[in-house]
Amino acid sequence: QWAVEEAQDGRIALALALSKPFDVVIAEAILPGMSGIELCAALRADRATGTQPFVIVTSDARPATRARALACGVDRVLTKPCMPEQLRLSLIHI
Q1: Rounded Cα gap, residues 33 and 72, in angstroms
Q2: What's this model's pTM, rounded to 2 decimal places?
Q3: N or C: which end of the chain has fewer CB within 10 A?
């Protein structure tokens, strides 16, 4: 069973992720205010969230986007459409 919390943009997601521990953060690469990649970089820079699992699920399938995400510390990059089972399986191996 998963409890999910949503944020309207990357800045709100950052504040939420810094406010309490989560088992995993899942974000789109393209978010208003702060991209999912920037969100991951900010969480990686914080001592409390630096090792928190982070997954990008994105419609942006360009290799450059994937490379930037992995370079900032994203654990997994999944391309939409992403079936729930695919997401669940990717979380098992983080």
Answers
A1: 18
A2: 0.90
A3: N
* Tokens (6 digits) for 78: 């999944």
Q: What is the residue-wise DSSP string for the chain?
A: -------SSHHHHHHHHHHS--S-EEE-SS-SSS-HHHHHHHHHHSTTTTT--EEEEES---HHHHHHHHHTT-SEEEESS--HHHHHHHHHT-
Give the position of tokens 């459409």: 81
Long-range CB pairs of 85-89 (<8 Å, 24+ gap) are 87/26, 87/55, 87/57
Sorting pLDDT into bands at 50, 70 and 90, what band is 93?
confident
**Region 5-17 average pLDDT:** 95
Alpha carbon distance 62, 44 (integer Å): 23
Residue 92 has pLDDT above 90, yes or no: no
